[in-house]
Amino acid sequence: MYDFLVGRDEEVVPFRARQLRNLLCDLGPSFIKAGQVLANRPDIIREDYMNELCILQDDVPPFPNQVAFNIIEEELGQPLEAVFSKISSQTIAAASLGQVYRATLRDSKEDVAIKVQRPQIEPIIYRDLFLFRTLASFLNGISLQKLGCNAELIVDEFGEKLLEELDYTLEARNIEDFIENFKNDPTVKIPRVYKQLCGPRVLVMEWIDGIRCTNPQAIKEGGIDVNGFLTVGVSAALRQLLEFGLFHGDPHPGNIFAMRDGRIAYVDFGNVAVLSQQNKQILIDAVVHAVNEDYAEMAYDFTRLGFLAPGTDVSPIIPALEAIWQNSSGKGLSDFNFRSVTGKFNQLVYNYPIRIPERFSLVIRSLLTQEGICFTLQPDFKFLEVAYPYVAKRLLTDPNPALRERLIQVLFKDGVFQWKRLENLIVLAKENVAKMSSNPAFQVKDRQSTRNWQVERKLDLTDTIKDGARLFFVDEGIRRQLLLALTEDSKLHIQELVDVYRLVESDIDIPSVAVEVVRDFPTVVRDLILSWSESVLAG
User: What domain of life does the native source organism fall in (predicted)?
Assistant: First the structure.
């Protein structure tokens, strides 16, 4: 009966998976949404069913035009022709909760997209959520025993996100937040929202004149630099996740456009998720621990992120994590992909008391979906070959004290300074800057607010060097470790220092560093005296 649940050993039966998908479509919007959620829950459902449910995106029958136009007029409080000079006679896209039309504003002649909610959908959603919750209460004992997850909690998380998507005024605010986050990034396009024309059931936003990622052939034939576009896309996704803590929760191919000038554009911001500052830092910790192959700390990161209950014994999980990571990355970046890691993770979450929090199921969906787009457009694309340089650049250049601390963790392993790792970080970071700055989006001169764009033509390590110098003088532990790094193994590591300098000499503003050192010298001396006096008093 429960052949779709994780842990069953029955032979894969694609027909049964298709039956489940078709049944969810017949049952309505809430069930379609539930299927989309299950498609990204490896802790609940088997991989073959996950793959089939991933098809549930925009293949939903539209509702009649006249019904949609009546809803638009009700929300606007005036006739369609008073606001729009023309509107498409067919829907551009239809999804579980609404559908989209193309129109032209009468006053400004601007092309816009109108998103209209399905009629009478709210009571249907509430009814379905009540049914889901009742069923979850009935099955909770089974889910806790067999899957190690709380069915009621999963339904509550799902219901909360679904109800958020019903309010288009909230989506309008999400769009404005994304515009603010990417305002200085010339490689990302977020559509403008016309808030005066929006309501709870209608959303009017700028029309995106690009090529949907559902049409990879058109992208390849459109003269777009595919590798550059994918590099921009991966970097934008990582910025959402690790910098802003606000990321697109449903970046399937229908919601992502390739612009002809090299930019990536996003639409449909009803499903977004927020990561706290603490969770962002823990994710970066996990990357650092993966680089250092510190699997015990990686297991602890799972607890801090909410995958494991506090107090859970992580010792049995450590060898499993080590096996997953080494099998996935042991042959190099070319053989690594998130789909294979997720497949192995399926087994891990079934064998151990791991539950994926809703926000991280969205993270998994986001990464898997965008990696899938990458492989569709360019089968030999290496996701980590873009992701690692981005992380390297952030570690080397971000002034955030927490990231400075994590950089130190990366550079020291078992108390020994990793010269080769520092060189690799610098090389990867420079590669990230070179790839991003070569994107055609940087070459466009006729857009507004060009002067505000932060175009990085080279890796700037000036602030990092200044912070490092200050840390060397003030922190006795760091000073001792760096001096040991130069003299370990009973030899002076001058050549390693020279090699590093050659890598960064063009990326450091020497006069600026000198001026800052002179300017900060009294402060550094004061901090050094305070540090010394504190150590004396402590002794």
Answer: Eukaryota
* Biggest CA pair distance of the chain: 84
Residue 47: inside a domain = yes
Do you know the residue count of the chain?
Answer: 539
> Pick from 138, 121, 304, 106: which is nearest to 200 by CA?
121
Q: How far apart are CA 236 and CA 243, in angstroms?
A: 10
Confidence of residue 335 (pLDDT cuts 50, 70, 90): low
Q: How far is CA 153 from the centre of its chain?
A: 24
Q: List the beta bridge partners of residue 246.
A: 274
Helix (H) or strand (E) holding 22: helix 14-27
**Beta carbons within 8 Å of 182's beta carbon, 6+ residues apart:** 188, 190, 236, 239
Which tokens in the block code for residue 156?
Answer: 């509550």
**What pLDDT is stored for residue 450 in this prediction?**
45
User: How many domains does one find in the chain?
Assistant: 1
Q: What is the number of other CB atoms lying within 10 angstroms of the CB of residue 306?
A: 16
User: Between residues 324 and 43, which one has the greater pLDDT?
Assistant: 324
Question: What backbone torsions phi and psi does residue 273 show, to the nearest 5 degrees?
Answer: -130, 155
Distance between CA 88 and CA 108 in Å, rounded? Answer: 18
Q: Is 7 left (phi over 0), alpha (psi -120 to 50) or beta?
A: left
Tokens standing for 443?
């070459």
For residue 446, give the 3-state DSSP assignment: coil
- Backbone φ and ψ of 116, nearest 5°: -120, 130
Predicted structure pTM score: 0.79
What is the domain range of residue 5? 1-58
Phi/psi class of residue 510: alpha, beta or left (left: φ > 0; alpha: ψ in -120 to 50)? alpha
Residues whose CB is less than 8 angstroms from the CB of residue 367 and which lie 6 or more positions away in sequence, other chains included: 237, 338
User: Could you tell me if residue 30 is inside a domain?
Assistant: yes
CA–CA separation, 72 vs 67, rounded Å? Answer: 9
304 neighbors 8 (Cβ within 8 angstroms) = no
- Whether residue 23 is contained in a domain is answered as yes
Name 135's Cβ contacts closer than 8 Å, sequence gap at least 6. none
Residue 67, both tokens: 């019904």
- Is the pLDDT score of 444 beyond 60? no
53-66: per-residue pLDDT in tens? Answer: 766 655 677 899 99
Which positions are annotated as active-site residues? 250
Token representation of residue 190: 């977020």
Which residues does 159 contact at the CB level (< 8 Å), separation at least 6?
129, 132, 133
User: How far apart are the C-alpha atoms of 43 and 239, rounded to whole Å?
Assistant: 26
CA distance 290 to 384: 13
* Under 8 Å between Cβ of 360 and 392: no
DSSP string, 409-421: HHHEETTEE-HHH
Q: Measure the CA–CA gap between 170 and 48, rounded to whole angstroms.
A: 34
Residue that is written with structure tokens 């912070």 in the block: 467
52: enclosing H helix or E strand? helix 47-53
What is d(CA 535, CA 501) in angstroms, rounded to the nearest whole number? 33
Q: Write down the pLDDT at residue 451.
A: 42
**Assigned domain for 1 exists:** yes
